[in-house]
């Protein structure tokens, strides 16, 4: 709703509409089914059935998490285009934009970045020339944007292997929701949403207010800064999203 308000008042409303629509698509995913037993092996013996049960759940949640991240990334690219003109790679363009415009404190940005990096130390190129540049600048949002650019490229261009269950069957202590592949996607989606909020906040004008999606008119910049600090209440009768940690409805 916040982004839709911006699309109504911005001279580049089409790009901001793209942000809102892609975020809506990411939020719209409520269930997903994956049939991993393509050869019917689960019918042959119980160990195979145990494996496919866990493998199917992991695959479903990995697919869901990937879809959510991808739509949020597309929303991020739309936001970058709405603010900055020119061509070039969207990830690099976004990183440079964030370094240039990001100012002020964004709650939990450092913590979310550290959590994401902790889960992806082996895959991150900390010696990349751009990573070294933003690190020297001391820009936490810049490091986050460069890290997310690297992660997105690995995810989209085949740089990440399909996750496999670590264990299955009776006595297994393996939990799908604790799988590092899902935790990494979840952490990176949260971080990407924070980066997107930061871009939106710094685009807003001083004195601008939001009225539609808040209880009472309030500072637009303050609303975007504290959006992820809000604890949302879910009615007891509302069905839970059965995608494990893929959900980011309340990502405080």
Q: Mind explaining what this structure looks like?
A:
By secondary structure, the chain is mainly alpha-helical. The chain has one domain. It is built from 9 helices and 2 strands, in the order H-H-H-H-H-H-H-H-E-E-H. The protein has helices at 2-9, 13-28, 46-83, 90-101, 109-118, 129-137, 140-156, 180-203, 220-226; strands at 209-210, 218-219. Strands 1-2 form a two-stranded antiparallel ribbon. A hairpin with a 7-residue loop joins strand 1 (209-210) and strand 2. Helix 3 runs parallel beside helix 8 and helix 7 (140-156) packs across helix 8.
Nutshell version of this structure?
The protein is an all-alpha fold and 252 residues long.
Please report the total strand number as a whole number.
Answer: 2
Uncertain stretches? 231-252
The end-to-end distance, rounded to whole angstroms, is 18 Å
Taking all Cα atoms into account, the compactness measure Rg is 20 Å
Q: What would you call the shape? A: elongated
Along the chain, the helix and strand elements come as: HHHHHHHHEEH
Largest sheet: 2 strands, antiparallel
Proportion of residues in helical segments: 55-70%
Strand content: under 5%
Q: Which class best fits the helix and strand makeup?
A: mainly alpha
The structural domain count equals: 1
What's the number of helices? 9
Q: What's the average pLDDT?
A: 81
Strand order of the largest sheet: 1-2
